[in-house]
């Protein structure tokens, strides 16, 4: 039975997509069966793992809006053990279309029931908002992984995210947990980054992963080649750090 993890933070550019793709690829490399779900209309996880959006016949939109079975939307990737439910720009309309639909918050959860036993991990890359797409992801998940960029204002906006998590726990998904808080894009040359680490650890304590993702140019280059970091440059510091994170996540 898959552990379902939503990667969420309504701030853009904090490393949600980079983490989804590379944590997914690293878990798959460790032999886990992994499904990535792209629920961001920008579809960066989809293109980042090498899927040409122009070739996508059906996407997460069809699951949420057209009741298509999840199994019919899953695509293979070039990474062994790693599959994906892609997103295209069509998803941009879903947020509004969902508003008036029945069981609008639980559509993803319902859709994943039938495929859950085929995977060890299902990782959902959320959009940079706290709307119905993110609520669907949180409602479908066992836990939420929160990436936080080691920058000024890192903690800003987190109270809204935590509030949304609390509301989902209260009304939609009582067993939702915080999987962990991941510090990303650390520039070890600056004191600022170290200050942010201290602040985040004070706030989230043992929920903060030991692994901290450094700023690494290879991580930012890989998506333009449609490759995870494990394929693009397995010896880079970025690859090493996401492999460390994968081991931490699966407790090995
Ligand atoms: P989000 O999905 O939260 O919007 P992304 O994962 O797309 O964030 O990251 C934002 C930008 O920062 C992207 O261009 C990405 O390639 C880059 N990036 C993410 N993590 C790192 C890192 N550790 N080092 C360098 N660049 C990174
Ligand atoms: Mg993203």
Secondary structure layout plus pairing:
Layout: E1 3-7, H1 16-29, E2 34-38, H2 44-48, H3 60-64, E3 75-76, E4 82-85, H4 94-99, H5 107-112, E5 121-125, H6 132-140, E6 143-149, H7 158-171, E7 177-184, H8 191-204, H9 217-221, H10 229-232, H11 237-249
Parallel strand pairs: 1-5, 1-6, 2-4, 2-5, 6-7
Antiparallel strand pairs: 3-4
Helix pairs in contact: 1-11
The protein binds adenosine-5'-diphosphate (ADP) and magnesium ion (MG).
Magnesium ion binds next to helix 1.
Task: Report the strand count.
Answer: 7
Task: Please give the alpha-carbon distance between the first and last residues.
Answer: 18 Å
CATH architectural group: 3-Layer(aba) Sandwich
Per the CATH scheme, the topology name is Rossmann fold
**In the CATH hierarchy, what is the superfamily?**
P-loop containing nucleotide triphosphate hydrolases
Q: Helix- and strand-based class?
A: alpha/beta
Principal-axis shape: globular
Enumerate the strands of the largest sheet in spatial order, edge to edge or round the barrel.
3-4-2-5-1-6-7
Task: Report the sheet-strand fraction.
Answer: 5-15%
Please state the average pLDDT score. Answer: 96
Rg, nearest Å:
17 Å
**CATH C-level category:** Alpha Beta
Family: Belongs to the ParA family.
InterPro entries: AAA_dom, DNA_Partitioning_ATPase, P-loop_NTPase
Domain AAA: 3-178
Protein name: Sporulation initiation inhibitor protein Soj
